[in-house]
Amino acid sequence: MKRILLAVFLLSLLLTGCTSTPEAKAKLWTSEPVISRTEYGNVAVEGIVRNDGQETAYFIQAEATFYDSRGNMLTTTSAFLDELAVGQTWKYSIMYLGLKPSQEVSKANVEVTHSL
Known about the structure:
By secondary structure, the protein is mostly beta strands.
């Protein structure tokens, strides 16, 4: 009986797999995003990303979502960086490329993601 239970247990491990998720060793710190306007009326959101982790971060994406004063989403635009070594910083600047006039932009949220 014990052999049957052991065989069932081992078979279930083979069928379901035994995987673990590695802990991320690249840890990115991001500053608060700041909206800037040029003398020509263009709008961009700017910020800084720093790798405070133990390994290089790859394929970094800063995705900005722009909103009007009523909280309606206007558009989403991204900036990309291939890699960011430990201790290095990246100053991103993401231009507003929406269809509505840039004067309507009142807020922007930025989400930074990366791959290992």
